[in-house]
Amino acid sequence: MSYAETMPDWEKRFRAPRVSLPDWAEDAPDRSLFVSNATGTYELYAWDRATGEQRQVTNRPNGTTDGVLSPDGEWIWWFDDKDGDEFGVWRRQPFAGGEDEFATPGLEASYPAGLALARDGRTAVVGRSTDEDGTTIHLAVAGAPPVVIYRHRESAGVGDLSHDGSLIAIEHTEHGDAMHSALRVLRPDGTTVAELDDTKGGAEELGLEVLGFAPVEGDTRLLVGHQRRGRWEPLVWDVVSGEETDLGLDLPGDVSAEWYPDGSGLLIAHGFEARSELFRYDLASRELVKVPTPAGTVSGATARPDGSVEYLWSSSAQPSSVRSTTGAVVLDPPGLKSPGSVPVEDVWVEGPGGRIHALVQKPAGVEGPFPTVFDIHGGPTWHDSDSFAAGPAAWVDHGYAVVRVNYRGSTGYGREWTDALKHRVGLIELEDIAAVREWAVGSGLADPDRLILTGGSWGGYLTLLGLGVQPDAWALGLAAVPVADYVTAYHDEMEALKAMDRTLLGGTPEEVPERFEASSPLTYVDAVKAPVYISAGVNDPRCPIRQIDNYVKRLEARGAVHEVYRYDAGHGSLVVDERIKQVRLELEFVERHLGA
Questions:
Q1: Nearest CA to 536 among 582, 505, 591?
Q2: Within a 13 Å sphere around the CA of 228, how many CA atoms are in the beta-carbon half?
Q3: Which of 559, 560, 538 lies closest to 548 in space, CA to CA?
Q4: DSSP letters along 77-119, please?
Q5: What proportions of the chain, in percent to the nearest 5, are helix, strand and coil?
Q6: Which of 196, 255, 188 lies closest to 225, judged by CA?
Q7: CA dist 216 to 1, 26, 27, 347, Å?
C-alpha cells in the first residue's frame, strides 16, 4: 500500500492541489494567470481558455505568487525575490512561453510598491520602496530610461492606471499615518490632476484605497474605498470633474467592489461577521441584486465579459474551489482531493472593548473539556473567517479544540474595532483573547490545564507577548515568524512596516520608548513559564531573525524550556513539504510537553 493511500487527512489537506482565482487579460479574456501548488510549491501558471492549455510559468525553490498579466495578454510579469525576502526585481515572460527577461531596465532591486501595466504593451508604472529612498514611482516605457514621477519618504504605492493610460492613481501616507492612505491622481509626467484625502480637517483618521479605474476608453471615474461611515465602502470619484457618487449601500459589514467589464455596474463583495456574499450594483438604476453563492467565504471574485461571475469560495468544512455563476467548474486541479473538516461554531463574548467574535472547531462526537489551541491570526488588520484552513483542521484531527479570536484590531467589524489597538499595541488584543479564554474554560469547552497559544506573524507576536504577560494562562506557546524584540524588529524590518509601527505606537523607539517596552515580548521574557516553540525564516524582512535570536538568548540564559526551528525562506514558506514539516514539528512539540 502506498503512502498516498495511508496518508493522514491532515496531511492530505496540505498536499491536495489548490488554485487561486484566475486573473484574466482585459483585452484578451481567454488568457488567464493563476497560482497553484500542483508541484508541491506555489508557482504561477498560464491558462489559455480557448485551447484549454495550461503551463507552469515560474519554477523557483522558494516558490512564486506575485504575478501580473498584461492587458493585451502577451506578457506575464512576476516578482523575483530570489531569497524569499521580498526584495527583488520584476521579470517578464511571453504568455506562450519563452525566456524570462528583466522587465524594468534601469530599476535596481527593491521592495515592491505596486505595478500597473498599460494597454499599449510598452508602458508600466512601477512602485519601489527601499530603506534609503522611501517610495519612488517610475514611468517605464520600453526603449527609454525609467522616469521618477513620484518620490516620498513615507510609504506609498501604485493603485491603478486608467484605461487609456492618461491617469495614474496612487495611494500615499505623506501625512504620516501608515494605516490610512490618501489618494492622488497623476499624469504620466508626474503632475497632479486631483487629490482625495479624508485624513484632513479633524481628529478622525479615515483611510482611502484605490479599487480601480472604469474599464472604458476615456472614462475618468475611479472606484474608491472609504471609511466615512465607520466601515469600508465604495464610492465613484470622477477625478476630472471632482464629482463623488455615494452608492448608499445598506449593508452592515465591510464592502469592496470592482467594475463589471463594460463599466455599467459594480461587483460588490460584502464581508460581515466572518462570512461574505456577492452582489451586482447597477450604476444607472442603483439597484443591488444578490449574486448567489453558498454560505461561507468568498476570498476573491471577478466579473467576466459575458456577465458571469467567477469566485473562489470555501467554508471551514469544505475545501476551496473556483466556481462560476454559470454553474461550470472553472478550475479543477487533478490529483489528490482534500478531505473536508468540521464547521465552525460562532461564539460572542463580552470583552473590555465590546463584543468579541470567536470561531470554534472541535472534534465531532467527543465530549469536552478538550485540550484547546488558541490560534491567533496575523495582520493585525485581518480576520479569521468561515473559510477552509488546513492548519486548524490538523489540530482538530488530533483531538484538540481550536478557538480563533477576532480581537480588537481585526477587520470586518468596523473601523473603530480595527483602530482600537493603537498605542497599547498587543496588550489590547491580549485582553480580548483572555476574555474568550475565560469563556472557553467556563463553558466546559477547554481544559484550563491544557491551553495552547499559537499564531504566525502578528499572531506569533501575540503568542510570545501572551506567554509573558499572562504566564499562568497558557500551558504551551507556538510562535511562527513572530515579533519577539520590538525595538530590534523596528530597526531591522522593511520601511513600510516601520511606518506602520510608528502609526500604531505613536512614534519611533527613541520617541516613545515606554510604549515599545510595554508592547515588546522581550520585556516579559523572564516571566515566561510555559515551554516555547519558535519557527522563523532566516530571510524574513517583516519579522527579522536578529530580534528573534535576542529573545531566544534570553530564554537560554535562564534555562527556559524552548525549541527553535529556522528555515531558509522569508515570512513563511510556499513549499508544501516545508509547511507540513513545520506542522508536524508543532504537533510533536505539544505531544512531548502536554501529552494530549
A1: 582
A2: 15
A3: 538
A4: EEEE-TTSSS-BEEEEEETT----EESSTT---BEEEEEEE-T
A5: 20, 35, 45
A6: 255
A7: 58, 11, 11, 45
Please report, as a single letter, which amino acid is at residue 96: A
Rounded to the nearest 10 degrees, what angle do helices 576-594 and 390-397 cross at?
A: 40
CA distances from 186 to 71, 190, 213, 267 (A): 20, 5, 13, 26
Q: Are 376 and 388 in contact (CB under 8 A)?
A: no
Q: Give me the tens of pLDDT residue by residue for the chain, a chain 596 residues long.
A: 566 678 999 999 999 999 999 999 999 999 999 999 999 999 999 999 999 999 999 999 999 999 999 999 999 999 999 878 899 999 999 999 999 999 999 999 999 999 999 999 999 999 999 988 899 999 999 999 999 999 999 999 999 999 999 999 999 999 888 888 999 999 999 999 999 999 875 445 689 999 999 999 999 999 999 999 989 999 999 999 999 999 989 999 999 999 999 999 999 999 999 999 999 999 999 999 999 999 999 999 999 999 999 999 999 999 999 999 999 889 988 889 999 999 999 999 999 999 999 999 999 999 989 999 999 999 999 999 999 999 999 999 999 999 999 999 999 898 899 889 888 999 999 999 999 999 999 999 999 999 999 999 999 999 999 999 999 999 999 999 999 999 999 999 988 899 899 999 999 999 999 999 999 999 999 999 999 999 999 998 999 999 999 999 999 999 999 999 999 999 999 999 999 999 999 999 999 999 86
H or E segment to which residue 489 belongs? helix 486-492
